[in-house]
Amino acid sequence: MAAGKELHVGLTDEYPPLSYVDANGQRRGFEFDLAADLCRRLGRTCVWTFGTQEKLLRGLRDGSLDLIFAQRLEPKQEGLLYSTPYYHSRAMCIGRPGGRGPDEAGARIGVYRGSVLVQRARGFWPEAIIVTGSVQELIERLKQGGIDVLFINDLAGYAFLLTDAGLEFDRLDIPFDAETRATGSCVAVRAGRHDLLAAVNRELKTLLYSGELHNRSRNYFQYIIY
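== ABC transporter, substrate-binding protein, family 3 ==
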């Protein structure tokens, strides 16, 4: 794989603390930092694309993107290549204590659009109303009473609960199957780029075993994510 060339990288623009714009208008996030570090290690210049999962997936399909840090495009898409996991997350439900739970008929459950959790929510709670949107949109709906429960991965969930707005909410004690409890998150690489996949896996392994990945994650998380 030639060094010194541009690497077209896609990230979600609406998923704090993984990728988001802070109050000062600066791009931040664990995945953003990791992607920038990966480009540097590969000797490539990052060319960024931020958008919805649907937009990023189209970019991989049409060749305008080389890879995306959007493992929430599950189930895994046929023809794309996937790295080894760079973190593990678990699903959780967030709601108001004493409020309507997800197993109650007519419960409104918010789920990040395009994620594997949409399918699982429909399977777990067939009588519920599933509402999809960005993380920011769903959090606003939860705060305003537009949804009863937020079904989300715990990285984004705990980040919200630690904010002032999250103080009136809590994690709901809901049992899940083993696959939902722990999910490995991967970089998706466009079809045919086995050389790029091998390089990504090599650098992710170095970051993991050297402790650099853990040190970087401490900027956003207070617990081990791998």
